[in-house]
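Could you help me review a protein record that somebody else here produced? What it holds is a sequence and that sequence's fold in token form. I have pasted the whole thing underneath without changing anything:
=====
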Amino acid sequence: MSRKNGIYLGIAVLLGFIVIWTELKKVSFDEIYAEIVTIKWGWLIVAFLCMLIHWGIEGRITQLFLKRSNPDYSFKNAYRIPLIEHLFNAITPFSTGGQPAQIVALGKSGVDYGVAASVSLMKFIVYQVWIVFNFIICIVLGFKWVSNSLESLSYLILIGFAIHFIVVFCLLMVMFWHSLTKNIVNGVFNFLNHLKLGKRLQKFRQPLLNKMTTFYEQSNYMRNQGTLIFKTSFLTIMQLIMYYIVPYFVLLALNTENVNVFKVIVFHAFIIMIISLFPIPGGTGGAEYSFTLLFGTFIFVPGKLVLAIFLWRIVTYYMGIVLGLIALFIKPDISTNQTKRIETIV
């Protein structure tokens, strides 16, 4: 890990500590202790297992996409990739560091860097498509739970959904109308060229067009791989379910009564939408605030709510950072028919 990313990690942990400490100060130690001694640890272990399965499923998706170029790529190597991706997503603004980090991690484990970039891109396409479908279902069936009582939060949810929808729409434009999209991008840059700011942006024109061409070529390959897309789509859905259901088991561990599992999944999906709007690493602050508002609608004991936030962030955020750091120092397996390329990660 570079010095810059080490600084990002320190900032992310510090911000998280400040937010958690702020939440803890809202209740007394006796209230927190009263909740801790009644924790059902079995349910909490299930929550941890859900996240471990979540990363394991993504590792399996990575293996499937590498089957053509690296058929003997081990599950040990594949499991490292989402952990490293989580680490760099967690410590960089808008989660921008995860994808470059996973490409380098794949390269260090013997995958050609061009193939690594293609695999990362294909995973991104499938994930974005299904996360938007998931959001649509959650909004259609569960938006009524927040639109009346939490109006300000509902706007953030809609904005988050709009951003993800626009991303998928742009991906589909490149996939199915590449020439038209290329002309539109060139037209925008030509228009901006007449502006003072536009001249500074011209250096991004060719790299963007090159990435669009690469994406188009990969999407053509994917359209001819129906079985592969079906398998990875199914696994992606399972991966999302494992992630979204984590708060349900956290609440069961805290003896929360009458927990509606579907409502918990919908609320967690809404929180993920909101987090995507915050430039702070890990959405720190926004995550805790949205969790308090949403789950505070049926967790009425302050100590229980604060502890739920703390445990939820440990399971879904901080555990991944710790495991990601460990994954960085685990030496990947390099098979005899793979070429080992040594580079420093990010």
Q: What stands out?
A: The chain has a mean pLDDT of 85. Residues 3-329 form one domain.
